[in-house]
Each structure stands twice: as structure tokens, then as C-alpha cells.
């Protein structure tokens, strides 16, 4: 696939890295020559320096025969104009734009071929807000991903000493929970993947990915670690787009406080939010945190744009007694360094956003794609088509499907029903199949597996 990416920042660079490793023809456009040189040295891609909304620059990048334009510069306006130019002059089939400003997103009818021709809108702030919201719903989870509009969920959790299943074989799950069906999709032990089998023994500190119907998630979590109490008191450091959207989404269910440095922004937040308490000051101010009883806080969220400020305020909050700490980290190199120590969960906005983009880049009828474990693994939801003659999966039992190495079928969504996949589960045409890949280099093999042969037509 020939893809033009506008913007060599964190999102554009991370996306280029993901796609270049999958034999795509990638061209990255940016005004910053130094960023482009850095990307070009590391990846097998083309780079073009210039403003991505200019017709001459797009033509130089190969827009005449590009399959897709992904506009993820820091300017909403540049992204929107670039999609308009690509549509009008180059007839680019698929145009994806990152648009952050809610004033654009809330206008019905603005984004269609009769107005601004954007096929897919990506709002990083909304993606990250939803990501954090799911983590708040399941205290103790490292990652929570929705499939089939939330009917099924994939959850990553660290197994702890004292969990009923720790030290026992996976086949014991059925005995422990006879009324709950679940599937362990993958286990990572000391950062290495282990293929889960019936006789696999779960060890303390294993990172376990399991899939279940939404209503069964907490029961399965309780088998792997002591269930944590639900959060009640939440402090958000940073009243930017993400902080505001998150507070708006959760303030009816939790006691929420926002700490924001900018006085004008504080007044704006106070006018917009209903029950959230807005405090003006620095989240790294020890006296302020103690005055606001951070030692009685269930969850401290550092959501500013400054990695160092987020890390420092999180470490301080944890030292002062906050029960759990989550931190946004924009620099991917920092994520592995800080997660799991005093900072419980480090969130990479880029990797959260990449999942939204991957859904539209993947071949075949893929409903959703999600990047896991800092981009090494992937979970996808794909629709099976065809019949037993034209398809390599339809009409076959899970145990008879030639899955690539390290790939697991976790569940099947059929007519709104969640069916956890077992060896004897048969795939039917129209099923939404949820797969987990511990090594995303096999994604092309999975796409080919679900492609329909000519006999179907």
C-alpha cells in the first residue's frame, strides 16, 4: 500500500515505524528537515520537506497514485486543507486527518465530500480519554480494550502472589469459575511471550492478556490477583484537552479535582465542569498536594504535555500516599523506564492513537486494530467471509485453522453474542473474530488467512 504521512512528530513517526516494517511504500512529509533526516536514517521510507497542504509538495510525495493520505501534523487546519487538496487534485481514495479542536468535531456535516472530504477523523485526546476511562473502571488492569462496541474486552493484568490461579495450570480456570467463560490470549514472562496451553502454569508477575464478555471481566481478574476496591477520589494534574474531557466523562461517578497552573484556564474549567473542583497551582507543589489530602486519593493522574512534570508530580503524589498513579508519557523511551515502579501505569498517547489508525491501514475486513505492549503485539477484530470452499477459516474449527506462530483466536462475536474461542469452536461467515498476535510481523499472514478465494465470487 502506498501511504503518505503528513507530520513527522510523535504520532507520524510512530506510525511510519509501524507501517514501514510491514512492506508498505511510505513517504513522510514535514517542514522540519532534521526530524525527516532522523526518520530516514532509521527507517526504509521516503521523506519530503515542505508544507503538506501545498499541491506541489503532495505531488512530490507521490499523491498522484497514493492509496492513502494520513494527515497528523500539529495543525488541524493544515490536516483538513491537505485532505481537501488530495481529494480535489489527486482523487486520493482514503484520507485520514487528526483533528483536535472540539469546535470542528461537534459540527455535523462538516466532514464529507461535499464539505471537507475527510474519510476518517482521529481525535487523539478523545482516544486517550476513552483509554484512561476504561482503566479507571477496572482498578489493577494495565490495559483494557473494547471489541464489538464493548461486548467483549481484552484485559492485560499482572498476576500477583495470592491470586487463586497463580501457581496453577490454565485448565484450572474452568474449575474455579464454572459459570464464566474466558480465554487467556497470551502470557508475557520477563518480557518474553509464552504460548498459553492447558498445562501452562501462571507465575507471579506474569503479564496475562485474557478476553471475556464485559460482565465477566472482574471475576477473571479476581482469579489472578486480589481485586482492588473501586476508585472514589481522583486527582487530575493538568486541565488541558485530555484533563477536561476526562473530568467531564467521570465527574458524575467520582469525586474529581483538577490542578491547573493557568488562571484563565482554571476559570474556563470552572465554567464548563459541573461538580469537579478546580484548583489553581502546580501539581508538583508539595504543600498544595498535602493540603488537598493527596494521601487520601485513590488515583492520581498526571495528564499535562510535559513528560518531566508528569513524572515528578506522579512520584511526589505516590510518596505522599496516593494509592495509584497513572502518567501520560509522550516520549516512548521513557515508558518502559517508569512503568511498574512508583508509577503504576505509563500511558503513551501515540500508541493509543496508532490503534485507531491501524484499523484503516490493515487489509481485509478489519473492524478494529489495537497496538499492545508498546507496539510489539497487536489485537485485531476481523470479519470472516466466504464459505468452506473459498475461505481458509469459515467452516473450520479453531484447532484446524493454520494460524501464524504466536497467534491466538480469543473470541468470536456472532449475532451480538460473545463466544469465547475453544479448539472445537467453528467459524461461520459473518463472525467477528478477535485475534491476538504476540509478534505483529505476522499481521500480513493473518490478513491473507481471512481473504476470500476467487471461488466465492
From TrEMBL:
Gene3D superfamilies: NAD(P)-binding Rossmann-like Domain, Regulator of K+ conductance, C-terminal domain. Keywords: Ion transport, NAD, Potassium, Potassium transport, Transport. InterPro entries: K_uptake_TrkA, NAD(P)-bd_dom_sf, RCK_C, RCK_C_sf, RCK_N, Trk_Ktr_HKT_K-transport. It comes from Zestomonas insulae. Residues 142-226, 367-452 form the RCK C-terminal domain. It holds the Pfam family TrkA_C. It comes from the Bacteria. This is Trk system potassium uptake protein TrkA. Residues 1-122, 231-347 form the RCK N-terminal domain.
Amino acid at each position: 500500500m502506498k501511504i503518505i504521512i503528513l507530520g513527522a512528530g510523535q504520532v507520524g513517526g510512530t506510525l511510519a515505524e509501524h507501517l514501514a516494517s510491514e512492506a508498505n511504500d511510505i513517504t513522510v512529509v514535514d517542514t522540519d528537515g532534521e526530524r525527516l533526516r532522523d526518520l530516514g536514517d532509521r527507517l526504509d521510507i521516503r521523506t519530503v520537506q515542505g508544507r503538506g497542504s501545498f499541491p506541489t509538495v503532495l505531488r512530490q510525495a507521490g499523491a498522484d497514485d497514493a492509496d492513502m493520505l494520513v494527515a497528523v501534523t500539529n495543525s488541524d487546519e493544515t490536516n483538513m486543507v491537505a485532505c481537501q487538496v488530495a481529494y480535489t487534485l489527486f482523487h486520493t481514495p482514503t484520507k485520514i486527518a487528526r483533528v483536535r479542536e472540539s469546535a470542528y468535531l461537534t459540527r455535523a456535516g462538516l466532514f464529507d465530500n461535499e464539505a471537507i472530504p475527510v474519510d476518517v477523523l482521529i481525535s487523539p485526546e478523545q482516544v486517550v480519554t476513552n483509554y484512561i476511562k476504561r482503566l479507571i473502571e477496572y482498578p489493577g488492569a494495565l490495559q483494557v480494550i473494547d471489541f464489538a462496541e464493548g461486548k467483549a474486552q481484552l484485559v492485560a493484568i499482572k498476576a500477583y502472589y495470592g491470586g487463586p490461579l497463580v501457581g496453577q495450570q490454565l485448565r484450572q480456570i474452568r474449575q474455579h469459575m464454572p459459570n464464566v467463560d474466558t480465554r487467556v490470549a497470551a502470557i508475557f514472562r520477563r518480557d518474553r511471550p509464552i504460548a498459553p496451553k492447558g498445562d501452562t502454569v501462571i507465575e507471579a508477575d506474569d503479564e496475562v492478556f485474557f478476553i471475556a464478555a464485559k460482565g465477566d471481566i472482574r471475576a477473571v481478574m479476581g482469579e489472578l490477583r486480589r481485586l482492588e476496591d473501586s476508585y472514589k477520589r481522583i486527582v487530575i494534574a493538568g486541565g488541558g484537552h485530555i484533563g477536561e474531557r476526562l473530568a467531564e466523562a467521570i465527574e458524575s461517578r467520582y469525586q474529581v479535582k483538577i490542578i491547573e497552573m493557568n488562571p484563565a484556564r482554571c476559570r474556563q474549567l470552572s465554567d464548563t465542569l459541573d461538580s469537579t473542583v478546580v484548583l489553581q497551582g502546580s501539581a508538583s507543589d508539595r504543600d498544595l498536594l498535602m493540603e488537598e489530602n493527596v494521601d487520601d486519593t485513590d488515583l492520581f493522574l498526571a495528564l499535562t504535555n510535559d513528560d518531566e512534570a508528569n513524572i515528578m508530580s506522579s512520584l511526589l503524589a505516590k510518596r505522599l500516599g496516593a494509592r495509584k498513579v497513572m502518567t501520560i508519557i509522550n516520549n516512548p523511551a521513557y515508558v518502559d523506564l517508569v512503568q511498574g515502579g512508583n508509577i503504576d501505569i505509563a500511558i503513551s498517547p501515540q500508541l493509543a492513537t496508532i490503534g485507531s489508525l491501524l484499523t484503516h491501514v490493515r487489509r481485509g475486513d478489519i473492524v478494529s486494530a489495537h497496538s499492545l505492549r508498546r507496539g510489539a503485539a497487536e489485537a485485531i477484530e476481523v470479519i470472516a467471509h466466504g464459505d468452506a470452499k473459498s475461505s481458509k477459516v469459515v467452516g473450520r474449527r479453531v484447532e484446524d485453522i493454520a494460524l501464524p506462530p504466536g497467534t491466538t483466536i480469543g473470541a468470536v462475536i456472532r449475532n451480538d453474542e460473545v463466544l469465547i474461542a475453544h479448539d472445537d469452536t467453528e467459524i461461520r461467515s459473518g463472525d467477528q473474530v478477535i485475534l491476538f498476535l504476540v509478534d505483529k510481523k505476522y499481521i500480513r499472514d493473518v490478513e491473507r488467512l481471512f481473504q476470500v478465494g476467487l471461488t466465492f465470487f
